[in-house]
Structure formats: structure tokens, C-alpha cells
Fold:
Amino acid sequence: MNKTIRQLEPISVWNNFANLNAVPRPSKKEERVIQFMIDFGKSLELETFEDKVGNVIIRKPATKGMEDRKTVTLQSHLDMVHQKNTDIDFDFDVQGIQMFVDKDWVRAKGTTLGADNGIGVATIMALLESTDIPHPPLEALFTIDEETGMTGAMALEGGVLHGEILLNLDTEEDDEIDIGCAGGIDVTATKEYNEKSVPRGVVAYKIEVKGLQGGHSGMDIHRGLGNANKIVNRLLYHCSEYYHIRVSEIDGGGLRNAIPRESFAKVVVDKSQAKDLEITFKELKRDIVQEFQITEPNLQIELQELKTSPKKVMGLGAQEKLLKGIYAAHNGVYTMNATFEGLTETSNNIAKVEVKNGRIQIGCLTRSSVDSAKMDLAYMLKATFELAGCKVIFKGDYPGWQPNPNSEILKVLVKKYKSLFNEKPEVVACHAGLECGILGRNYPDMDMISFGPTIKGAHSPDERVSISSVRKFWNFTKEILKDIPKK
Structure:
């Protein structure tokens, strides 16, 4: 499959992408890909070094005649989101991504593809190894751990970079130029609870919600997609209103920046109420499937009787507070931006719910382009979960990137886009978290812009990148480097 990928145009980009995707590179486990990138830079006899946290910097002198241009920092992140379908046997820690071509798309077999941000990385690699592309002095910055905290960008010290212009290659629509992004904060609620023995005379069930699209909790949050954690909680809440169900386990979602596609729960109910519970569950299922018939056509909701009953369940008080707390907690778009039409300003993703062995943990990622609004929603969630008896902590706070419509490099990109494609690009801010805002704290004078090829379904096994868009993106990037202003 990957052999076919290597034959796509531009060959240099796709070959580097295939090489990169052969290296396991989960967030917080980037040792192998860091070494891969160091070896790559040194093989080209370019200045290559790793900073104290694992970011890799590679520098390439300007081509002849362009020595007087401003130095450009090309930036992408090395890590990728690891998500797979439950029926796929795949170990991200040891296996390379299995890619294939589907018409104009490159996809992965049942897993995330890693085009976010691997195509950006591969494009920079192709520029570094090129011998016939005119360019100013280049500085490649490959950051780590973007997907689970942006800790690489946060730890990058001032004075390390030489660039005056930053080209961040990490957006997902090829007709857009990004000049701003949302900041974010992790909101985590935890609680210890007393487990109770399972009552006698019960029937045990497993509730499954799966088949949802999932996706990026920033870029896709406005699409009204289903959140598996909220759906499971809705089922549990309404069933518990009518029947004596007791929750044993809940396991839903995963990464904070991915909309949860699947969630599972184990419950028991009095044997005398089992048949009625099944009828009510079918009614709830019918209503929910009907609600999501357009946005989530593959939604599956199942109630399966278990042969073996769990041994422990939650106490009734803890269970009631949990279900009410998750029901009350905001999920999805909270406010829209008043400046950029159609742009989400503030949102929350209830990304992970885990209830097991006497412990509750709920993980959220709250985003906003306005820092005060981000914190307002974070405190709303904190109050909600504290009312449910949980302890709440904030972690991983990172800033947004404030738009600069007068940016010099923005003018270069807009002019170049018009001349190449005979149309105006969309100049936008995005609801995802880009590293530009963080890097800007230590490099406030650096002129920053972000752009990339068209990628769909990022952070989900439906992730795919457009082949024709990669060609467009590659040509655009090469042409931009020809017109970098003089120092």
C-alpha cells in the first residue's frame, strides 16, 4: 500500500510522509521520531540540534541570490493522534501507519493517518533536501507533544530561533490562510466513591454507543456531531429515572482533543424490571438515532445482556450525582465569534469519562479565542462538577493567537495565492489550538501565518488528506519562499 503512496506527486513530499509514517510517534513518546529527524538533518549535513525538551531544529542556508532575505522558520509538530476502530488489530507503539489511495484521498486502514501534522513535516523535509528550489535562509522547527498539551512549544526558550517570519504548516483547508487561533485548558474532575456489592436477583447489561464520526474537538466542534459520552450518560440518566439500575463501569472516549466516538457502560437492574428496561431503552435509542440521522448516520446504540454479572456497583448517591453532573456539563459550541462569521469562539469537549474500581475521572478540553471567555466556561464546568461532589483541577493552559490583519507575510501570501489560483483566499482564524500563540510569547516580533492542505476527519480513523490539495499546497509553499521580503 505504501508503495503506491510513494508514486504520488509531489514525490519528494509523499516519500518523506511514507518514511515518517513508518516511525511510531504518539504524543509523549516521540523518542524514535526525534532521532529519525536528527538523523535526517545530519544526513543532509545541515546544522541540526535538539533542545532540552526534544524539539528539533534544522537550519539550511539561503540559495544563491537570496541571502539578503529574511530568515523563515518553517514549523510543524512531530507527534500524531492515535485513534483506531475497535475492530482493528493495530499497535501504534510498534507499527507504522498502513496507508492506501481512495480516489483523491490518502487514508489509513482503520486508524488515524497522521496527515495532521505529518504532511507539514514531510513538506519541510522535502524543502530541506531540495537542490533546485530557490529559498531564503530556512530554519525548520519540529515540535513535540502538540496534540496533548503543546508542551514542546511551551518549553521552547527565547533566543533559540533565528527566524523573522514563521510559516506554520498545520491547518486543514487549502483555500484558507489562518491568522489566529483558540487557546485551551484541560478541565479534569475526579472523585472516589464507595463500591457496593451487586444485589441479588439482577440482570447485567452492557450499553454500547459506537459508529460516531468523532473528529477534531476544535475544527469539528461546530458540526453538531454526537459525543458518545453524552449519549451514554443520557441513556443511563433516563433509564435510572424509571428503573433500579446500578452502574458498575463506564469507559468512554480518550484523547481530549478528539470528539469521543465510542462509549461503553456496564449496569445491573432488578430482574423484575429487565423486560421493561429493554423496552424503554429501545424507545430512547429510537429518539436519539432519529435526532442524529443526518450528522451521524452510522450511529449504533446497543443493549446487550451479559452472561456474567459484575461484582461491584456504584453507591446510589454517587451514581445520581455523577449522572446529573455529566448531564448538566456543557458540551459543544458555547459562543460564536462576533468578528469572524461562522467561527466558534468558545467550546467544550467532554472527551473522557472513566468510572471503575471506586474512582471517577472526567476529562474535558475547553477552548476559546478569548482568554476570559475560556476561563469563564472552565469555571462553569468546575462549578458543575463540584456540585456533583468532584474535585476539579485546571491544567495545560495555553494562549490563543491574536489576529494581525496588517501582517507583512499575510500580504505576501494573499497576493501569491491570487496570482497562482485566480481567486482570493479566505483569511480566517480557527478554533483549533495552533502553536503560533505559544511561540509568540517568547518571539513577539516574529511575523506568523498558518496554512496547509485539505485534511478531513483529523483525530479520527476517518482522517484523510487530499492528493490534489497536497500538490496545490506544495506549489504554493515553494512560490511563497521566492517572495520573502528583504531584511
Remarks:
- The chain has a mean pLDDT of 95.
- The longest strand covers residues 344-356.
- Residues 274-291 form the longest helix (18 residues).
